[in-house]
Amino acid sequence: MGRMLLTACVIGWFLLLILFPVFGVVKEAFQGGIGAFVSNLKEASAVRSFLLTFWITLGTVVLNTVFGTILAVTLAKQRFRGKLIMEGLVDLPFAVSPVVAGFMFILLFGPNGWIGSWFEAGGIKIVYAFPGMLLATLFVTFPFVAREIIPVLKEFGLQQEEAAYVLGASRWQTFWKVTLPSIKWGLVYGITLTTARSIGEFGAVLVVSGSIINRTQTATLFIHQEFTDFNYSGAFSAAVVLALISFGILVFMQKVYGGKRRS
Amino acid sequence: MKSAVNSKSRRKSRSSTPGDLVLRSLSFFYVFLLIVLPLIAISSRAFSGGLEGLWRNIVSPQALYSLKLTFIVALVMVVVNVVTGTATAWVLVRYDFPLKNLMNALIDLPFAIPTVVTGIMLVALYGPNGLIGGLFGRHGIEIMYAKPGIVLALLYVSFPFVVRTVQPVMIELDKDMEEAASTLGARPLVIFRRVVLPSLTPAILTGAALSFSRAIGEFGSIAIVSGNIPYKTQVASVYIYGELESYNPQGALGMSMVLLICSFLILILLNRLQVWNRRHEHAD
Amino acid sequence: MGIRVCGISKRFGDFLAVDDVSFEVKTGELIALLGPSGSGKSTILRIIAGLEVPDKGEIYLRKTQVTSLTTQKRRVGFVFQHYALFKHMTVEKNIAFGLEVRKADGSFIRKKVAELIDLVKLQGYEKHYPDQLSGGQRQRVALARALATEPAVLLLDEPFGALDAKVRGNLAQWLREFHNQLQITSIFVTHDQEEAIEIADKIVVINRGRVEQMGNAREVYENPDSKFVASFIGRVNVLDAVAGDGRVVIKNTPYAVGNPDAAAMKDGDVVLLIRPEDVGILSGPHPYAIPVEVRRIHYRGSHYEVDCLVGSAFLRLIQSKNGFDSLELSEGKKISLVFNSYRVFEAQEGHAEVRAKLKELGYIE
Fold first, then answer.
1. Helices C135-147 and C91-101, axial angle in degrees (round to 10)
2. Do the beta carbons of residue C189 and residue C154 sit within 8 Å?
3. Less Cβ crowding at N or C end of chain B, within 10 Å?
4. Segment (H or E) for C303
5. How many CB atoms are closer than 10 A to CB C76?
6. How far apart are CA C78 and CA C187, in angstroms?
7. Interatomic CA distance for residues B283 and B178, integer angstroms
8. pLDDT digits (tens, 9 = 90+) for A162-209
9. C360: pLDDT confidence band, cut at 50, 70 and 90?
10. What is the pLDDT of residue C355?
11. Are C48 and C25 within 8 A, CB to CB?
12. Which residues of chain C lie closer than 8 angstroms to B284, CB-CB?
């Protein structure tokens, strides 16, 4: 009896909080029919914003995968002074407010910032442009890849790699043939999380973008813009598309998680 | 003494091949560029105007109000989330019901959905024109563009934290302990309070700390659902954004430093909790 | 009467774990539920404690029907295989738990806990946490905790299963003495027949969810009702044989064994079960002598064990050192054997299990 009641309460809460809002936005987006939904998305600024999101996500995934793997290998296999502090710093982006993150990058890479002023002198704009938005996204997604593979690398230990060395494999061969296959699932999972967060990042990108319509607007910024301009149907339509993409990523994540647990 | 130094230096020389050094340098570079340097930049800017100016920024009435609001809504969310999250984990681990696997998979949905989309979805359902919001509106209860909306948004974005930290511990829970308690005469609620709960405490606290950390920094969903009205629904992160939009970075510095220090403290707390959690696991 | 189990059955999905089990335990008795793993003996114990609900049948504790009572109300002491100590409580708190949830008086709890700590000899460990104790100590805490509420019956699930052999022997001895002292009606579950023989007043042999036999150690050992019991309790040789014309002839040999209860035997394949100590070596002629060759001699310290080849099967026998020396046994020597005692069972009955058991004991490959 108590068991049924508790189950009912939990399911009810889950539906009300998590699932019904999804249905709510889908209903609103299709209020004007499918035609209106499609024409909302065909708008030039909408298309451009989704494209920009795509490029930022791609850049973030590539850079954070490469550097995240290097970082994880360093932290998992080497001993050096300051390692503990470095491990703590890796987690920091999870705890920092995205708005504060964006602000930090403006201070550093802005026209008057320490690094930004050099680039500005060379005619390169970082903040209020693509590079700044990429940097901000790199920051907020920084921990995902490293955090997912460090435990796998630690558990994997040194023995198999040492066995490969003894058998004459070079470092590079060992990495490709021994280490990488063992961290494969963790890596894919980390990349998936990075992708999801890159697509969805809003606060940090908003702050560094300067939100210049048609030029520095990502999909999330576009949705926000439409919303604040009271163009609700545009906001709802784009939101449904992003929700759909997230849902796809979630399904993929579950599949990968299955693979990760099996290995 | 001498041999100890020797063996240490030997170990060091063996583990630091040129390849290691390249990897380590790249790691240092990346962490320095993306994390350390921005932190230094913001701290040096914050303290360049002297502590007094910084303090004045923080205690300005509007800033103070938003800071207070941030903490209150975060705390309310954490309390609700701990109860519902633990209950959800319990139901998922211990009971069977139709579509359980589907629900288990969908728990992560809030992590996958962009926060702006979350805000939009909540407005679509709970806003004045939404299906449920309209219902409440007719009875004079405002959800969106008011404090309940902020709590709702925070609950949405941090829902998986408690569930996902408690669930694995619950699965590993030694059922024998509960049976032992029942043979000793303890009723279900007593068993839960005295036997189950103590084992879950580190995990619940970890989930709570993660939710809290997320809540004080959350921006996207709140920017949509709160209406951002100063002295009413403006939270800390929105306050910072407002100051930046009105070209007043000086005003944003104080609040940013407060949030950063909170982040650091929570990270330290989480680290302690992890140590505690590990000890619990190994106490077998 | 302490405990009465009447016709209980329990099914898990397709698997019939307990199949119409009945037995009785007298007040103050210590009995063993003995069986291989998966035989349903733990389930029976859990049903008595109310941790499982039987599909059929009734449980009586001290003449009261308790089948529909919750575990909490049955007042049984239960010791779990892996102790199930509360990890976040000290030894003291663990022992006090049952009294606390029953809202006993504070000073009474303190007195009782101190008494029990004395009884299980854990003085000085009151403030320790379970992970600071050895396996044997944890076991004793679990026992003290179960006894704190003064239960009418004590149920122990593989109480020594998780301990290493040496601690196990000591603790088994200790439990027996402990039981003599307290005289509390107890059932313990074990898969270890030596343990059962050593400490139980009575043994209930369980196989495939059924009671195979029940009796004291000597009855079960010397008069096994079934081939399963015979092979599960103690060590035993198995020889394939053929019954016919009132004779039982060992397969692949011309030799018959003496005086089988031939009238009761169905003709056909049978198995002979002979305990190693029941095999005699003959020095003179005998009507049922079986000539064999000594194949291998094992020195065991206190005695010798000798493997002989009978037809195509190996047979193991035990010889004292004196007997061994006077017979001048050596590998390859031809001797004659006689079976002082043996049992005949039809070949079909539970053959696979017997084989498995023998393999486990190292009799067959």
1. 20
2. no
3. N
4. strand C303-310
5. 25
6. 10
7. 17
8. 788 877 788 888 888 888 888 989 999 999 999 999 999 999 999 999
9. low
10. 60
11. no
12. 87, 131
Q: What is the Cα–Cα distance from C239 to C256, expressed in whole angstroms?
A: 12
Residue B17 CB partners (closer than 8 Å, separation 6+): none
Residues in chain A: 263
Is A62 within a domain? yes
Instruction: Express each pLDDT in B167-190 by its tens digit.
Output: 999 999 888 999 999 999 999 999
Interface of C to B at Cβ within 8 Å reads: 49-51, 70-78, 80-88, 97-98, 101-102, 129-131, 142, 145-146, 148-149
C254 and C221 share a domain? Answer: no
Q: pLDDT, tens digit, for every residue of B133-148?
A: 888 989 988 899 999 9
| Long-range contacts, A44-51 (Cβ 8 Å, 24+) | A44/A214, A45/A213, A45/A214, A45/A217, A45/A222, A46/A222, A46/A234, A46/A238, A48/A214, A48/A217, A49/A217, A49/A218, A49/A219, A49/A221, A49/A222, A49/A238, A50/A219, A50/A222, A50/A241
Amino acid found at C176 = R
Would you identify the CATH topology of the domain B36-107+161-219+229-283? Answer: MetI-like fold (1.10.3720)
Tokens of A245: 């993409």
* Nearest-angstrom CA–CA distance, A205 and C109: 63
Let me know if residue A201 belongs to a domain: yes
Instruction: Say if residue C55 is in the same domain as residue C91.
Output: yes
B283/C131 CB distance under 8 A:
yes
pTM: 0.82
Which tokens sit at A12?
């009810």
Taking CB atoms and an 8 Å cutoff, what residues of chain C touch B199? Answer: 87-88
